[in-house]
Amino acid sequence: MPAAARVIVLLPTYDEIANLEWIAGRIRSALPDADLLILDDDSPDGTGELADRIAARDEHVRVVHRTVKAGLGAAYVDGFRRAIADGYDVIVEIDADGSHPPESLPAMIAEVEGGAALAIGSRWVPGGSIVGWPKRRELLSRAGNLYTRIALGIRVQDATAGFRAYASRVIAAMDLDSIDSKGYCFQVDMTYRLARAGERIVEVPIEFREREHGVSKMSGAIVVEAMRRVTRWGLQRLVGAEPR
To answer: Of 88, 128, 162, 177, most Cβ neighbours within 10 A?
Structure first.
């Protein structure tokens, strides 16, 4: 890893016009030398147009206008391919709703610069916390992560977390064509791939805050996708089959 790693932050958006300017500003303040790539899934609320205006006044910001709403996983895979092609050393994932604190990014990136394959901004390690969630949602997240750890045999406490910094070398080594997880199961998929490869994964405690503006993209279908895939991968693990 170079002494001054080239960092790119991937920011997928869909109908986040109320949050985009604010979160983009916080990212740029936290990482003034990094580049920001906004991946907009054809938002009907004008998010893409706002992204273009932000990019027009900041040379560190670029925008990709995706023509369909294809899900979180597809947006990130698109961003991964672009980041690898452009020679970045560290690739960051962050949600556009303000739930992830960009101010934690320097600590996460330092872990990757120190040799970690993946640094996760974690809610469920000592020092991590949640603000603004009802107890039911917290229990659902904790239970989902416990099930994931047991089924997949991994030690990561927050495998569903979407706040991450990757060493680009591990992304470049992956078969990105084989990744078809659509929702937040994508994060479990990526975590499991790195764990199986024996890569070092670290968790950095963060304060996660529920969004203040806009509508959550979480749905029952996303939860079902994650449960079905984790169960399938867990069964394949038990019989020694390659996960697919």
So the answer is: 88
Rg (CA), the chain: 17
* 61: β partners: 36
DSSP H or E run through 63: strand 61-65
Q: Contact at 8 Å (CB) between 175 and 201?
A: no
Strand 90-93 to 61-65 pairing: unpaired
Phi, psi of 112 (to 5 degrees): -70, -40
Burial class (CB in 10 A: 0-12, 13-18, 19+), 33: exposed
Burial 147-165 (b: 16+ CB within 10 A, else e): bbeebbebebbbbbbbbbb
pLDDT of 65: 97
Burial group, residue 62, by CB count within 10 angstroms (0-12, 13-18, 19+): middle
**Using CB atoms within 10 A of its CB, is residue 101 exposed (0-12), middle (13-18) or buried (19+)?**
middle
Place of tokens 């916080």: 26
Give residue 92's identity as a one-letter amino acid code.
Answer: V
pTM equals 0.93
Each residue's pLDDT tens digit, 161-204: 999 999 999 999 999 999 988 777 999 999 999 999 999 999 99
Residue 124 near residue 157, CB atoms below 8 Å? yes
